[in-house]
Design goal:
The structure is a single chain. With about 160 residues, this protein is mainly alpha-helical. It has one domain. The protein contains six helices and three strands. It has a three-stranded antiparallel β-sheet with strand order 1-2-3. Helix 3 packs across helix 4.
Amino acid sequence: MFRRDGEHCVARFAADEVKVLRKVANEVVGLLTDGFDRDDPVVGRLFPDVYPDDAAESSQFRQYTEGDLKTAKIDQAGAMLAVLPGDAGGEVRLDPESAEAWLRALNDARLAMGIRLDIEDGTDLEDELDEAVLRDPTSSRVFQLSVYAYLGYLQESLLNAMLD
């Protein structure tokens, strides 16, 4: 998908891909603004305790860093939204700074989806998707697992283009 063109990472997105990426980025922004809830497991995954064995230290660290981290995550999702082509799809050209922002935004989206889908380390995504398709091929879980897999593919593609 992504390829290197000089210092840029370039990809062409179909209309449905743009729609999915726009929705995913907007959901992350919404989670971090309107729906920010420290007790939400997704928020916990995006902002893990630095000192899991010391609640007071974690709270103090969070007090000084969480605002900046939240702003950075919102900005990264915004960087994705800013360069996505229109509804008909099209090309995206990312300079090195934008590519890093996209990589972080994709990672945040995958972490959030992984929590919502109960995907853990060691989960075989292909098996999970196959089981979901067998149960109900039209279910929202099949679509969500497909988006999760797509985001992983996109993330890997962008990373490889950045390293070329």
